[in-house]
From TrEMBL:
Name recorded for this polypeptide: Diguanylate cyclase (GGDEF)-like protein
Domain of life: Bacteria
Domain EAL: 24-273
Cellular localisation: Cell membrane
Portion of the full-length sequence here: 558 to 837 of 837
Organism: Halanaerobacter jeridensis
């Protein structure tokens, strides 16, 4: 009987594996199609400055227009298939183009953060591409922030450090994303020219209530390196109040706003988000 069960398990295991491979192939085709047919769009989520309630930064987050497949699912497939390089360039070009059109209309531009995957290091001409795109659109590099994760330092340390220094020389801002999900050696604080650290949602959910003082110390640690701190994934007011008490600088989360279409950006720049949630 035991033998039979093993055989059965093996059979189901194989089926599951085949299903997974088929699913990945299907999504890869969708991504290829989206690249060719304008099938991606960007949503923008504000990061609220706790000093004044304003959205000084917006993070660009990619979506598939016609499919309900989250980036958490399709970005890893884009990474493993190499499509991330073309997708990454599309995102960069789109963001810079959007800022440029708004500059032309005389609207105050906002600083925009772009996510950058470790696999994009394979795009050896990315820096050149970025520089040219900024120049063509007449956009100041200081308006762009690039978000990296620790994985970039773990996988390709030397190459990554060189790349990040080139970005900084260009005038681009640099944020460390998803802090608290990796190995967090902290050693890189000595040699990576960061401008900001983003605390991952999981860290905020785990520690804000039970270990608020630890969160306060963590924020102080980053402040001692002159790094402002953003807390990600904040959904309720209590979390916001705790973070405010602990000296957190920015909050990004559904409490203040979900990612929005570009058309909403003008309105977003006029809102005092702290007053808004206090009225509710
Ligand atoms: P991320 O860079 O850490 O982005 C933050 C994610 O948290 C976004 O998910 C955002 O919608 C979500 N979020 C924000 N506030 C809340 C909240 O209060 N509650 C909850 N539950 N979630 C919140 P999203 O847009 O699904 O993106 C997931 C991940 O996919 C991103 O995580 C990023 O790693 C990746 N990604 C998204 N867009 C791009 C892109 O253009 N390029 C690359 N390379 N990666 C991207
Ligand atoms: Mg991010
Ligand atoms: Mg994050
Ligand atoms: Mg402050």
């Amino acid at each position: 009987r035991a033998k039979e069960n093993t055989k059965k398990d093996y059979f189901y295991y194989n089926i599951k594996l085949i299903e997974k491979i088929e699913e990945r192939k299907r999504i890869k085709k969708i991504l290829e199609k989206a690249l060719n047919n304008n099938g991606f769009e960007l949503k923008y989520q504000p990061q609220i400055d706790l000093d004044n309630g304003q959205a000084e930064y917006l993070e660009a987050l990619i979506r598939l227009k016609e499919y309900d497949i989250s980036p958490g699912k399709f970005i890893p497939i884009a990474e493993n298939s190499g499509l991330i390089i073309e997708i990454g360039r599309w995102v960069t070009k789109r963001v810079i183009g959007k800022i440029s059109t708004d500059l032309a209309k005389g609207k105050a531009p906002k600083k925009i953060a772009i996510n950058f995957s470790v696999h994009q290091l394979e795009d050896h001409n990315y820096i050149k591409f970025l520089k040219e795109t900024l120049q063509e659109n007449n956009v100041a590099p200081e308006l762009i922030e690039i978000e990296i994760t620790e994985s970039i330092l773990i996988k390709k340390e030397e190459e990554a450090v060189k790349f990040l220094k080139q970005l900084k020389d260009l005038g681009i801002k640099l944020a460390l994303d998803d802090f608290g999900t990796g190995y967090s050696s902290l050693n890189y604080l000595n040699y990576i020219p960061l401008d900001k650290v983003k605390l991952d949602k999981s860290l905020n959910d785990k520690f804000l209530e039970a270990k608020a003082s630890a969160m306060g110390n963590l924020i102080k640690l980053f402040h001692s390196f002159n790094l402002p701190v953003v807390a990600e994934g904040i959904e309720d007011k209590e979390q916001y109040q705790r973070l405010q008490e602990k000296g957190c600088d920015y909050i990004q989360g559904y409490l203040f706003s979900r990612p929005q279409k570009w058309e909403k950006i003008k309105e977003i720049t006029t809102i005092n988000f702290i007053e808004k949630i206090n009225e509710e």
